[in-house]
Design brief:
CATH class of the largest domain: Alpha Beta
Number of domains: 2
Largest sheet: 3 strands, parallel
Number of helices: 4
CATH topology of the largest domain: Ribosomal Protein L15, Chain: K, domain 2
Strand order of the largest sheet: 1-3-5
Distance between the termini: 65 Å
Oligomer: single chain
Strand content: 5-15%
């Protein structure tokens, strides 16, 4: 095979439609745009135009606010950690950081960080290093001899 012999498969490419090339072509004279009016002219866009009536995007009230600084966290409950320990995925007394929790499949990818919540009970001491944790989760883990280290300050109002 040579470079000058390479070609596309049959039917893989199509010739462009040459408009405005005479009546015999099927797209002559008005080039398939119909007759006159705004839509037949070049550069005409009328999306959202409702014929002079007040358009719907102006009739409806504006609601809400999207905070561009919002932080979204992956959530892990302490009963999820206990289930992983019971199934043998995690060793008792293990050092668990965010990378380890992702590797064990307790949380997915993306988001800002991991937050531990206090649903359920835990019976084995673990050392967690996560972005955030609820007070109930921290007290439940510390009650069995574990430790929670919070890596990022979760401040309610960003300065």
């Amino acid at each position: 095979m040579r470079l000058n012999e390479i070609s596309d498969n049959e039917g893989a490419t199509k010739n462009r439609k040459r408009v405005g090339r005479g009546a015999g072509s099927g797209t002559g004279k008005t080039s398939g745009r119909g007759h006159k009016g705004q839509k037949s002219r070049a550069g005409a866009t009328i999306n959202g135009f409702e014929g002079g009536q007040m358009p719907i995007y102006r009739r409806l009230p504006k609601r809400g606010f999207k905070n561009p600084f919002r932080k979204q966290f992956c959530v892990v409950n302490i009963d999820d950690i206990q289930k992983a320990i019971d199934s043998g995925k995690i060793k008792a007394g293990a050092e668990l950081d965010e990378k380890a929790l992702r590797e064990f499949g307790l949380v997915g990818k993306g988001r800002t960080g991991i937050r531990v919540l206090g649903r359920g009970e835990i019976s084995v001491a673990v050392n967690l290093s996560v972005t955030g944790a609820s007070k109930t989760a921290i007290s439940a883990i510390e009650k069995v001899g574990g430790k929670v280290t919070i890596t990022a300050k979760l401040d309610k109002n960003l300065d």
